[in-house]
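Regression report. Comparing outputs from two consecutive submissions.

Submission 1:
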Amino acid sequence: MKDSRYTETICRDFCNYFKDGKEELKCGGYEFLMEHLTLKELVRLSDEICTKESLKISVPADNQDLFDRVCGRCDFMIDGCDYRDGVAAPPCGGYILINELIRR
């Protein structure tokens, strides 16, 4: 089950795919961020990089290590991932936040 505080920051604020009612499904980025960042650290990062509207920045889609470690455990991968497959689609919120951590 998702933690509503993490969901607000990762999903609602950064993920273009977020829909209410999917509380039992988590992307790999969500899992990773919950395991490695406290809520306080996550909120600080979120506040520093703004919201999904201002994050139309280039997020590299060629980070195979990130795909292997994070996306491989994603509940949504059963349907595939347009972003990862090179289709003109934005990454999920978890990927955006983790990529920002790596960039920093």
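Submission 2:
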Amino acid sequence: MKIKYFPCQPHCFAFGGFDMQMINALGSVRKNGIDASKLDSWSRDSDFDIIHLWGIGPHNYQIIDWSKKSGKLIIATVLLPYFGTLKSEIGNLYRQYFSNSFKTQINYYKKIDRIVVLNNVQADVLYKYYKVPYSKIDIIPNIVENKYFETINTDFGQKYDIKNYVLCTGNISARKNQLNLALACVNLNVNLVLIGNVLDGEEIYAAKLESLVNANDNILWIRELPKASDDLVAAYKSCRVFALASLDETQPISALEAVAMNKPLVLLDKKYAYQTYYNGAILCKSPTVKDIEIALHMQFEQNLDIKVNSDIIQCKEDSVGKAYCKSYSKLNSGSIEF
């Protein structure tokens, strides 16, 4: 059984958590004995059985059509909106009845043999809005790399000369709302560590953040640290609180990493924050500076031992790799056992 992975977009553009998950998932299934590799668009070699698509949209509709014509099995990992507000519900009803592009997307979901989502709520969205039967859906969470479950000796605070800080990691963008988080930390006179590159197209937003960082000694912005590097893992280990006041997420990996390190969380009060992995998080009522201040203050005041979240074990690399192997096995039943 040979599997080819195809990305949502070229990784030179807007590389983020979803793209990282593709790479991590590819590594995890290989470790579980699966012959998986990246699809080379320049190669004429069609000797594979399953194509694994990351994301579904116009960019890969033709690939789905050709895969079906060629007798290839198709699996897709997708991120979906939660439709958590009345406005989004009304908008979706409009799309279902009047949007040709949405109808086309639903048609392509029918052509895919198995679809992977991150949690039960996403599975319900896929069934209710995209008309995918539960029998075609697998629930597999994001991967948290093994180093976040291990002991790390690097002293981040000493190396970067910062202590007792709030941590936020991920690409810098208006959606992730780091500017308001930074303003809240300035107002509270609390140290903040930001780790992340500027997302393509977010240069104006990043310039505002950079001006604030330059004007305040209590903010450290590190543009990039390699994934699961000693310094990045140590940043989690040494932080006081992990905070992500993002306006829109599906299952933020950065917050999962904080949970694996047994760190207190501050998240925005959105549907993504109600997954069991984030139990115990303090939720901001809104993305405003004032509400972020209130949530941070509440988390500081708790001063309680954080209970270990046993659910996070499901996100370990080996667990996720085995879950994907089972999905492939369902597509190719009888040819391989796990």
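Expected: both submissions complete independently.
Actual: both completed, but the second showed a warning that disappeared on reload.
Relevant detail on submission 2: The longest helix spans residues 17-31.
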